[in-house]
Every structure is written in structure tokens, then in C-alpha cells.
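Session log. Operator J.P. requested a structure for one protein chain; no other inputs attached. Running the standard single-chain path with C-alpha cell output.
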Amino acid sequence: MKVQILGTGCAKCRKLEANAREAIDELGVEAEIEKVQDVREISKFGVMMTPALAIDGKLMCSGEIASPDKIKKWLKNEKS
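Structure written below.
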């Protein structure tokens, strides 16, 4: 599973990454975290506001810092 953090590396992006890592650790799932900071790559997802999060190429949220609990729900859905 690949979790992508889309953003330029601001404090909000780092918080979203930390939340994603926490969710992955708590679930014990195998996942690779990739930071996507290139604006052209981010725009390919249709993202207008960062930070954003994608799981296996599917955009899950944009313009918000999703909580670890919310990310865990998405991870469980993508895993099944």
C-alpha cells in the first residue's frame, strides 16, 4: 500500500504525515509513505488545496489535516 502526502512541506503537511504514520503504526499495516512536493505532480491529483492525502493513487482528502482515526478508516477500506 502506498500513502502519498501531497504538499510543499509546510507545517500542515508535516502534521498530516505524522498522523498518517501514527495510523499506519496503530493498524500494523505494510505501507510506504511518499511525499509529493512537486506542484505539477500534486495538480495531477486535482488538488487545489494542500495538504492532501492519497492512498494507492486515490485522493482521500484535500485542504485538511485528517486525524489518525480518519486515516485508519481509509486504510482499512483500502486494505479489504
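Operator note: The two ends are 11 Å apart (CA to CA).
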